[in-house]
Design brief:
alpha/beta, five-stranded mixed sheet, 6 helices, 21% strand
Length: 142
């Protein structure tokens, strides 16, 4: 019980991503870690803290989570710094994914595949599980 309590406090606001370590393989194949997309907000804050980009940034999504809901919890000033273009990857500066899929990504490649001109830029991890990953467009940002 102590371990679980420590985990919940340490990983707030992502405490809902708790799974027993013995079940990692089963969990990864059968469960979405971040069904609600809470991690999108943390990743947006990471981008805001960088302050090395010219805003507004165009952000696309490679998961089923609606980024416009994330925008609603940002201040008006920060909302203007991002344009969420959903699954229009080629025009995006960044692509978010929390690995939550409505359909199998093998069959909906346009939405879920990350184009080759993007590279992993940031990973939000809880207990070594990536719950959100941000990809940067190499053609727009070196």
């Amino acid at each position: 019980m102590s371990f679980t309590s420590f985990f919940l406090i340490k990983n707030h606001p992502h405490q809902y991503v708790y799974f027993n370590g013995l079940s990692n393989l089963f969990v990864k194949k059968n469960f979405a870690y971040d069904y609600w997309g809470v991690s999108n907000h943390s990743t947006i804050k990471y981008l805001l803290d960088k302050k090395t980009f010219q805003f507004p940034l165009k952000i696309s999504s490679a998961s089923f989570t609606d980024l416009n809901k994330t925008k609603l919890i940002l201040s008006e000033e920060y909302q203007k710094k991002f344009e969420f273009i959903e699954d229009n990857h080629n025009d995006a500066d960044f692509i978010f994914t929390n690995y939550y899929y409505f359909k199998n990504p093998k069959f909906n490649k346009k939405r879920y595949d990350i184009p080759k001109n993007f590279r992993s830029y940031y990973k939000l991890k809880i207990n070594d599980k990536t719950i959100n990953e941000l990809y940067i467009n190499n053609l727009k940002h070196n």
